[in-house]
Amino acid sequence: MVKIPMKKALKIIALLCLVCLFLLAGAAVALHFYLSSDGFRNMLLDKTGEALGVKITTEKFEFSYWKGARMVGVKVRNPDGMMTPHFFEAESFSFQYNLLALLRRKIEIERFTLKEPKLTMEQTKDGTWYLPGQKSVPTGPVPETGAPTPATVPSKPLPFSVETLQIINGSFVMLGQDGRVPFSVRGLNLKSTINIDDTINHIAGAVSFNELTVTDKLTISAAQSDFELQGRKAILRKLQGQSFGGRVEGQATIDLGGVEMPLFLELQGRGLDLQQILEKFGSGGQQITGALQAAVKLQIPLNAPLELSGGGAAELANGRVVGNPLLQLIGSVFNISEFQEVPFQKARTDFSITNRVVTLTGTDLKSPDIRLFGGGTITFERVYDVVLTLTMSERLMNLLANDVKIAFKRNEDGTYATPEFKVYGPQSELKQNLLDTLLKDGGKRILEKKAGELLNNLFKRKEPAPPAVEPPAVNSPAAP
To answer: pLDDT tens digit string along 61-82?
Structure first.
């Protein structure tokens, strides 16, 4: 047996270690160059695109062991026949990872940054929303294929986490079949964390955005919110922003699965400008001022936004109504101008929405001379079917014709109320039965009064005439 001196053995070990280090360094350098090469970039994009069924391109790809990876000009193409060329595009995409965690079979991303990403989700001809990699579920019977094959156990995914996910100036747009945008978020800035493993699927953080739009009717701007992704539901909690000249706050949830893609809104608004709301909904021919407060709960299927449902309440204080079609119609019955412009202390209503019909209950408008109370329905096509009661002050009563006045009922507070009447028909051709109701009710009261007088006359006892009294005789003077 040959003995090797300790000193020489140490030299041999050191030399072997040095060779191994050189080999590792060379392999690392070679791997670095490979991972930075166009070949690796193309292979990575092709494999990812093949898994998702899309074409992915990038203008530039950089990789570093210590700095992570960065891609510039990332684009994910839409299939042919779509309205927009790209499902996703971003100015740049970068991440920094924890190398030691990767050796422990954990994917830990320290920072994941997307600059100016834009995601456009289109509605397909069958009403569904296109997502890359989405596969349709067969609806027919399963064909027989002989003996059943044993089920395969899916491999357990590696735990995945992102310490800081940052989106800078992003946008998310949903594009309907008709080219309209039922939902969009623009100028989005997000900071969040991500944790995904076999038991946890959680993304949460803080988000701000320049503009959130629901169809073309509701826009919330300069907003901020807490953000959370639970499964397929994206939730905005403690949402605060500006809308219609006032402030709104509440919560929004969008279900990103299924055909309807429902959006749930629970909002409270203060100091809203009702005039802006009317103009947005196409009723700008009238003017209504005042501080509006409202609370709404709505469910909006984004594949058919007009099929929304829900309800709420609205209240308007210290305002003025000018040129309202319903009030103008009532004013024309009495031929007085006070209904053309009505200053009011308070106007409120509860409402519900279903099947494109708004149902009003407890509608109440109070002014110094007029109070209008009632409820009914108004369709999205502005067809009215409401039942109202009108109360007027004594000052206005003095302006009415006598045959109309008699139909009003005097209240304890000195005001006068009409019987219930209807306003119905399309807004452009509104009709009412107020005059017929007043004349009918007034005529009835006149007949009742006349009948009472006639009965009184028939049964009134006549007093006998007093006997005639003869004048006393006058004596003539005697003849001389």
So the answer is: 777 766 677 888 888 888 888 8
271 in Cβ contact with 292 (< 8 Å): yes
Q: How far is CA 97 from CA 70, 162, 190, 233, 399, in A?
A: 12, 9, 19, 27, 83
**pTM of the full predicted structure?**
0.74
Which parts of 309-382 are beta strand (E)? Answer: 309-322, 341-354, 357-366, 370-379
Name the residue type at position 476.
S
| Nearest by Cα to 373 from 318, 329, 419 | 419
In this structure, is the dihedral angle defined by the CA atoms of residues 291, 295, 298 and 302, taken in order, positive or negative?
Answer: positive
298 beta partners: 265, 310
Q: Tell me the C-alpha distance between 27 and 210, whole Å.
A: 48
User: Which residue, among 204, 247, 205, 252, has the nearest Cα to 222 in the 3D structure?
Assistant: 247
Count the residues in the chain.
Answer: 480
Report the alpha-carbon distance of residue 305 to residue 427 in Å, rounded: 23
How far from the centroid of its chain's Cα atoms is residue 141's Cα?
40
Strand partners, 114: 93, 167
**What's the CA gap between 123 and 182, in Å, rounded?**
11
Question: DSSP for 31-83?
Answer: HHHHHTSHHHHHHHHHHHHHHHTS-EE-SEEEEETTTEEEEEEEEEEPPTT-S
Find the range with the poorest average confidence among 164-173, 356-365, 402-411. 402-411
* Cβ–Cβ < 8 Å for 176, 266: no
User: How far apart (Å, rounded) are the C-alpha atoms in residues 115 and 97?
Assistant: 18
- CA 86 to chain CA centroid, nearest Å: 27
| Structure tokens, 134 | 């989405």
